[in-house]
Write a structure and sequence with these properties.
Layout lengths: L1 H12 L28 H9 L7 H6 L3 H37 L4 E4 L6 H7 L5 E4 L19 H18 L4 H7 L9 H8 L1
Parallel strand pairs: 1-2
Helix pairs in contact: 2-8, 4-5, 4-6
């Protein structure tokens, strides 16, 4: 009987509206896009995609000075702050209250049909050491935005922002939409979405 009650509770915890009086969010503080030096790491690429200042990576930090990138960063920050952060904070609180007492701290999370939804997997199971996400979308590889054609990057960032829309606003992806948004260009596959979720 307890297992049957978990699904309605999980769905209630995933609703996009915060409870009355809830003010806690997990929104990152806005950062200043300063010129950085050195080679970009995977962490820096993740920060770049998420619209946050990079710590290293001269090429990425130069790209962050452009108006097109500033628009991308503002769009990502707005979506995170207004839609996703409160929902994720509620999921984490619900997980602490309901899942941890029942499940402990699982080391491996198997998430069938999750696709690139690492954001909610880590919110509900933050202590797992391994996340196995299954989906229909191509994974792609580690993108190199600083090595991309500068003329192609703004359009790719716009498509990337569209692919993040439904997850950050509503909590899920639409496979058909992200396949089109992330096909080809400097940001192919769902790896950019996974990186942005980690950042």
């Amino acid at each position: 009987m307890k297992r049957l009650l978990l699904l309605p509770l999980f769905l209630a915890a995933c609703s996009s509206e915060p409870p009355r009086g809830q003010t806690r969010t997990l929104a990152p503080e806005p950062g200043e896009f300063r010129i950085a030096k050195g080679e970009a790491s995977a962490d820096d690429i993740a920060l770049f995609l998420a619209g946050r200042p990079v710590a290293r990576g001269a090429g990425l930090s130069q790209l962050q000075q452009s108006g097109a990138y500033q628009d991308h960063a503002a769009d990502m920050a707005l979506k995170w702050r207004v839609f996703a952060s409160k929902r994720v904070a509620r999921q984490q609180a619900w997980s602490d209250d309901q899942l941890r007492p029942a499940l402990g701290k699982p080391r491996v999370l198997l998430y069938p049909f999750g696709g690139p939804d690492l954001l909610h997997a880590t919110a509900l199971f933050p202590d797992a050491s391994t996340y196995v996400l299954l989906g229909l979308e191509p994974a792609g590889g580690l993108p190199a935005p600083d090595a991309a054609d500068p003329g192609a990057l703004p359009a790719s960032l716009q498509r990337f922002g569209r692919s993040m829309d439904s997850q950050l606003k509503h909590g899920y992806f639409i496979t058909r939409d992200i396949k089109g948004d992330l096909a080809g260009g400097p940001l192919p596959g769902v790896t950019p979405i996974l990186l942005a979720g980690l950042a």
